[in-house]
Amino acid sequence: DLSIVQYWNQKISERLPVTYNFLLEGGLFTMPTARVGDDGEIAIGYASVPPYRIYSAGAQIHPQIEITLNYRIFKGIEDPVLTPLGFGDFSDKGANVKFALLRPEDSQFELPGVAIGFQDFLGTRAFKSRYIVLTKIFLEQGIEASLGWGEWRIKGFFGGISWMPFKCFDVHDYFKEIILAAEVDAT
């Protein structure tokens, strides 16, 4: 009986890891997904995505609300006001928020997750966008698929897929964590 209970407890808590994009949002490479981290999670990150260097901080302030802050430095582009005064490259700050209306975990992965988000909604808004995205998890196969639509910087439809090919095999734990991903970038 205890082995049956242990089996079902494992199944209930099983999930795919949340991946984070270059802006430290739940996403793949540049596009967001409907996935968010665990409540109370905080993170800092750095990404070098030519022509930008992006410093980010993020916090999961509520199970359904993800907030990230970004500081972009444009490599090799001088700031028209500050460079003559001895300061460096042009830069921009931004804040992003994502509301997970339904997380895939909320329905035990039966329904897709649904999220709406706003990127760069404060400051210069040079990279502003708003979007809606659906993310379906196929837990047994180790697949996460997203489809979304955005406007402004994210122009039209975008999507992505990630796959953990060794998730269901009896291999070393190192191989079970490998994720193959692809996305359609709408910027």
Would you give an account of this structure?
The chain is mainly beta. It is built from two helices and nine strands; from the N terminus they run αββββββββαβ. The chain has a nine-stranded antiparallel β-sheet, with no helix packed on it. A hairpin with a 3-residue loop joins strand 7 (about 145-150) and strand 8 (about 155-165). The longest helix has 12 residues, at about 1-15. The model has no long low-confidence stretch (mean pLDDT about 90).
Topology:
Elements: H1 2-13, E1 42-49, E2 52-62, E3 65-78, E4 89-102, E5 113-119, E6 129-138, E7 143-152, E8 156-163, H2 173-176, E9 180-184
Antiparallel strand pairs: 1-2, 2-3, 3-4, 4-5, 5-6, 6-7, 7-8, 8-9
The gyration radius over C-alpha positions equals 19 Å
**What string, H for helix and E for strand, traces the elements in order?**
HEEEEEEEEHE
Number of extended strands: 9
Question: What is the number of helices?
Answer: 2
Percent of residues in helical segments?
under 10%
Cα end-to-end separation: 53 Å
Mean pLDDT: 91
